[in-house]
């Protein structure tokens, strides 16, 4: 193999053989393409080159041909800067080799934007300059904005989450409104502009109405007077008291239905009085009374089911069971307030044993006083967390009694029937009288 440095010309450079056949290797010999020579030596080099290449039809130098390069005194791996006096006005190309064809990489695609970019290039007059020259077209990347792009699905996920939150909020609002303001098919809404005022019914006037269902809703105002109970009687107030007398009527002989009474007050006391003497129609009675902030009192006919509840307020009720033989349920519940319940002897057949009545009395904070008639027979079970517990009754027999500093539990029994009465008090004393003393 020929040496890289065969001879020295005028001390200005070195004669170098080409390492390849047909063209120069740019990576190994980058300085073989262009030669920097002083202007005084250009004529001499041109003459010498004319002699060497005379009669040759190939313009590319062969392995035996030489190219003049500047002198380099540096060791391997070092370069010597070009002096200012040796720098020519411009670089003179001695020889050039054909550049190998470079395969142009496929340009990245951007989906819908490809057609727009293609039309833009056609209007501009063809391909880019870089693409025509055979060099790869650089890919320009947009800077990241650190936000989820539409292609990654971030925007769609946020839209779905927003839609779900909006849907849940609307449904929750509708449910809350429906619970606070229940709608009835027979409910009559107050016309706009009509002032709210108390509603009062004269005694005996309710009997003149023919409707089997009576519904009274008052936003702000009290309700008082006497009202007939045929099939359904409902009285509701948002801000105001209820003080009425209920007059039960006979059932429709063609379509007999239970007599249902409801009373509800958001902020206000409730006083309901059912008759306890005289002619009371033989019907199935259902009573439900509730107050959020206010006391509940009165006399109630107990038929199949009776419920009295108050969130903040006392309960003082006298219960008249219509019949001793029918199975029934009685329930009272208060969060904060005193509870006083007195159960009378049955109206229809006094003196008959009441053996199928179930009662539950609950109170979070407040004392409780319970009185049951001698006709009642069954099991009594009571619990208190903080407070005393006392049971009285001539025929009452204590079966189990657990008393402590914190919790009291007593189980007693009267007679042989299957009635059951249970009471639970978190904070407060309890006094229960079952039967005669």
Automatic annotation (TrEMBL):
Feature: compositional bias, Polar residues: 56-79
Residue ranges of the TM segments: 160-181
Region (Disordered), start-end ranges: 1-29, 52-87, 190-212
UniProtKB keywords: Membrane, Transmembrane, Transmembrane helix
Protein name as catalogued: Adhesin domain-containing protein
Organism annotation: Coniosporium apollinis (strain CBS 100218) (Rock-inhabiting black yeast)
């Amino acid at each position: 193999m020929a040496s890289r440095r065969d001879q020295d010309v005028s001390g200005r450079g070195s004669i170098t053989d080409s390492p390849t056949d047909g063209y120069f290797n740019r990576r190994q010999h980058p300085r073989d393409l262009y030669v920097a020579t002083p202007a005084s030596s250009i004529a001499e080099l041109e003459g010498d080159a004319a002699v060497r290449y005379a009669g040759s039809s190939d313009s590319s130098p062969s392995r035996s041909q030489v190219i003049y390069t500047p002198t380099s005194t540096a060791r391997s791996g070092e370069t010597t800067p070009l002096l200012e006096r040796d720098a020519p006005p411009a670089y003179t190309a001695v020889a050039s080799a054909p550049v190998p064809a470079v395969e142009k990489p496929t340009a990245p695609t951007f989906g819908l934007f490809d057609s727009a970019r293609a039309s833009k290039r056609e209007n501009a007059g063809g391909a880019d300059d870089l693409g025509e020259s055979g060099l790869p077209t650089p890919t320009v990347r947009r800077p990241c904005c650190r936000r989820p792009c539409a292609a990654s699905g971030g925007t769609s996920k946020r839209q779905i989450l927003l839609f779900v939150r909006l849907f849940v909020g609307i449904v929750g609002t509708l449910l809350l409104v429906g619970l606070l303001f229940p709608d009835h098919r027979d409910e009559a809404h107050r016309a706009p502009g009509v002032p709210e005022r108390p509603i009062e019914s004269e005694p005996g006037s309710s009997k003149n109405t023919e409707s089997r269902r009576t519904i009274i809703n008052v936003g702000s105002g009290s309700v008082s007077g006497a009202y007939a109970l045929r099939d359904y009687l409902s009285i509701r107030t948002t801000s105001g008291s209820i003080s009425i007398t209920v007059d039960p009527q006979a059932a429709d002989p063609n379509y007999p239905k239970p007599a249902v009474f409801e009373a509800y007050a958001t902020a206000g006391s409730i006083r309901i009085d059912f008759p306890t003497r005289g002619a009371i129609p033989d019907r199935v009675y259902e009573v439900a009374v509730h107050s959020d902030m206010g006391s509940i009192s009165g006399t109630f006919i107990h038929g199949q089911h009776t419920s009295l509840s108050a969130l903040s307020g006392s309960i003082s009720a006298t219960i008249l069971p219509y019949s001793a033989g029918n199975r029934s349920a009685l329930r009272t519940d208060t969060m904060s307030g005193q509870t006083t319940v007195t159960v009378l002897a049955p109206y229809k057949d006094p003196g008959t044993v009441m053996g199928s009545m179930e009662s539950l009395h609950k109170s979070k904070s407040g004392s409780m006083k319970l009185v049951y008639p001698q006709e009642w027979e069954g099991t009594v079970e009571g619990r208190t967390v903080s407070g005393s517990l006392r049971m009285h009754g001539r025929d009452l027999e204590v079966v189990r009694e657990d008393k402590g500093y914190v919790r009291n539990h007593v189980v007693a029994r009267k007679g042989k029937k299957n009635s059951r009465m249970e009471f639970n008090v978190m904070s407060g004393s309890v006094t229960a009288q079952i039967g005669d003393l």
